[in-house]
Amino acid sequence: SSDIRKGLIEAFTNNPNQYLSGESLAELLGCSRTAIWKHIEALRQDGFILEAVRKKGYRIISSPEKIVPDNILFGLNTSYIGRNVHFEETVDSTQNIAQKLALEGAVEGTLVVAEEQIGGRGRLERKWQSPKYKGIWMSLILKPAIPIMKTPQLTLLIAVAVVQGIQDVTGVQADIKWPNDLLVNGKKLTGILTEMQADSDRVHSLIIGIGINVNQQLEDFEEELQSSATSIYLETKTSWDRAIIIQGIMKQIEKLYLLYLEKGFYPIKLLWESYSISLGQKVRANTLNGSIFGLAKGITDDGVLLLEDDQGEVHSIYSADILMET
Ligand code: BTX
Predict the structure, then answer these.
(1) Predicted confidence band of residue 200 (pLDDT cuts 50, 70, 90)
(2) Which atom of ligand 1 is nearest to the CA of 188?
(3) Distance of alpha carbon 42 from its chain centroid, rounded?
(4) 248 and 318 share a domain?
(5) From the DSSP assignment, how many helices (H) and strands (E) are in the chain?
(6) CB 277 within 8 A of CB 283
(7) Are residues 11 and 141 in the same domain?
(8) What is the Cα–Cα distance from 275 to 293, expressed in whole angstroms?
(9) Cα of 24 to ligand 1 centre, how many Å?
(10) Which of 53, 81, 90, 118 is the most buried (most CB within 10 A)?
(11) Are residues 98 and 121 in the same domain?
């Protein structure tokens, strides 16, 4: 019966703004008109605004403010990225759920979305604040046939896609700070965390966590973040339907991922460089093995940052926090 629900959403997606009669829907989905009616009512209860006009049929006027999986599916026009949505209200971390689903054989493009994370995490076991109903907290499963060495490329790809998706939908232009922070005027809008399941030489699954601050007002951030973080609401003074932003991002991810699989990393690298604010700047890289100060010269074809210190020595930075000295 959730197939009927899926079918309904798909039918409305394929016929935007048109009335669809109960009779034609029942025929299309191979069920009774009563079943259609029941599912229309269920959609209403989940916050869809539906219009019913005698002799014409039903029409979806708007999808709900709360995220529900159908809300992401309604209007999504990708072929596999984000088409299999696993939704939860409250989780420790969407990464943990995606890790488990990947082990159980989830299809590529599976997306885990939650309204709230209690144990949202960043890199190096840092915390990621994920307040309820305010942001996009999601993890995407990709299964590229690449060696482990090349996984940083995918992190950079996702950063570009998220920048583009956010810009397409909201007009907010974010910059990328290597490797994958998205900043607006120096304040953090988005964090990306890539984890993987692999054996010695091959990647089985990449679990890419994306956290986007969407509808937070200043007081929704904990105090220590209020000067360093921002949200799309704070940048636009408008609240946003998060499902639409997720769709925009899924669309860009699929586009860039297909480009990457066909043409390799080079076109992605060019895009990444065009959005980057780290390159050409003097930066400090704090790595687990110490701190290096130098000029960010570029990224390699594997997505590694090249930093030239004052003695002219070039260091390859695989993982670090970058401080931009202003
Ligand atoms: P990161 O280690 O680069 O950044 C973590 C740091 O960012 C924290 O120490 C804190 O200073 C700051 N911070 C925490 N929460 C926020 C926030 N909401 N907005 C701005 N700054 C913040 C970045 O790690 C990677 C974050 C990935 C988050 C996603 S959400 C979905 C998925 N599930 C999960 O547990 N993590 C990922």
Answers:
(1) confident
(2) 20
(3) 27
(4) no
(5) 9, 14
(6) no
(7) no
(8) 22
(9) 47
(10) 81
(11) yes
- Closest C-alpha to ligand 1, atom 9: 126
> Which region holds residue 32: left if phi is over 0, alpha if psi is between -120 and 50, else beta?
beta
* Spacing, Cα 82 to ligand 1 middle (Å): 22
Contact of 197 with 205, CB cutoff 8 Å: yes
What are the Cα distances from residue 291, in Å, to 69, 282, 298, 323? 43, 13, 18, 10
Please check whether residues 231 and 111 belong to one and the same domain. Answer: yes
Query: pLDDT (tens digit, 9 = 90+) per residue, 144-157?
Result: 999 988 999 999 99
CATH number of the domain that residue 81 is part of: 3.30.930.10
Query: 319 and 292 in one domain?
Result: yes
Amino acid letter, 23: E
> Do residues 130 and 136 make contact, with C-beta atoms less than 8 angstroms apart?
no
Distance 94 CA to ligand 1 centre (A): 13
What whole-number distance in Å separates Cα of residue 265 and Cα of residue 34? 52
Residue type, 107: V
Radius of gyration (Cα) for the chain, nearest Å?
Answer: 22
Q: Cα-Cα-Cα-Cα dihedral of 26, 31, 37, 39, to 10°?
A: -110
Nearest to 108 by CA among 313, 237, 253: 253
pLDDT attached to residue 319: 84
Residue 321: pLDDT band (50, 70, 90) is: confident
The CATH number assigned to the domain holding 292 equals: 2.30.30.100
The CB density around residue 212, as the number of other CB atoms within 10 Å, is 24
Q: Whose CA is nearest to atom 35 of ligand 1?
A: 120
Residue of the CA atom closest to atom 36 of ligand 1: 121
Q: Is a pLDDT exceeding 90 seen at residue 230?
A: yes
From CA 4, how far away is CA 22, in angstroms rounded?
A: 13
